[in-house]
Amino acid sequence: GQNIDQPTEMTATEGAIVQINCTYQTSGFNGLFWYQQHAGEAPTFLSYNVLDGLEEKGRFSSFLSRSKGYSYLLLKELQMKDSASYLCAVKWRRDDKIIFGKGTRLHILP
Amino acid sequence: ETGVTQSPTHLIKTRGQQVTLRCSSQSGHNTVSWYQQALGQGPQFIFQYYREEENGRGNFPPRFSGLQFPNYSSELNVNALELDDSALYLCASSWGTSGGLEETQYFGPGTRLLVL
After folding, report:
1. Which of A17, A31, A46, B78 could be A50's S-S partner, Cβ–Cβ 3.0 to 4.6 Å?
2. Which residues partner with A53 through β-bridges?
3. Do B100 and A50 touch (CB under 8 A)?
C-alpha cells in the first residue's frame, strides 16, 4: 500500500527546535510535500522535496532520504503560532496521486 | 490567501439528499483535486481533474462524482448522502500533473458538510 506514517502528536516549548518525522513506502516515490494546517483552516504549503538532502526556508527546513523512505520537517525558534497540524504528503509515479498522512498535531508550550 | 475559493463554506443536509460543492481554482492553474478530511485525520484523495477530464480517483464510491469546466473551476457532487460523509471537503488547485514543484497544490478554505 501507500502508507505514510507520522507521529500523532508532539509537544515542544516556545523557542526550542522540533523535528517531525515521516516515513513512506519507497516504491514509485515521486516527491514529498509538507503542509501546515491550523485548526479549522485549509492546509498551507510549506516545502517540497524530490531529491535527497535538506531544503531550508527560514525557520523551517525539510529533509529527504529516498533510499530510506524518510523525511523530516525541522522547525526552529518555535513560536506559539506554530501550534498546528503538520501533514506529510507523497506523490507516487504509478498513479499520480498525492496521498496525505494523518498529520502530526504539534502543541507549543510557553 | 491562495486564490482558491470554495462555496458554500458550511452546509447541513439529511441522509439520502444530494449535494454540490464548488471550487474556483487559482488563476493559471489547470488541475483541481478534491479531498475529504474527517476530524483529526489527514485529507483523503477523492479525485483529480485535469483539463476537464478525470485524472485519477481514490477509494470513493461512484456516488461521489465531479466536473471541471473550461475555466478550470470544478464541482464535487455527492448523491445519497450518508452520515459518514460529514467532513471538511477541500479542493486544491495546481498547474499540471507531471510532477515537480509546479505540482504544489494550493488549497481552498473548504466546505464543512454535516449530514444529519
Report:
1. A31
2. A64
3. yes
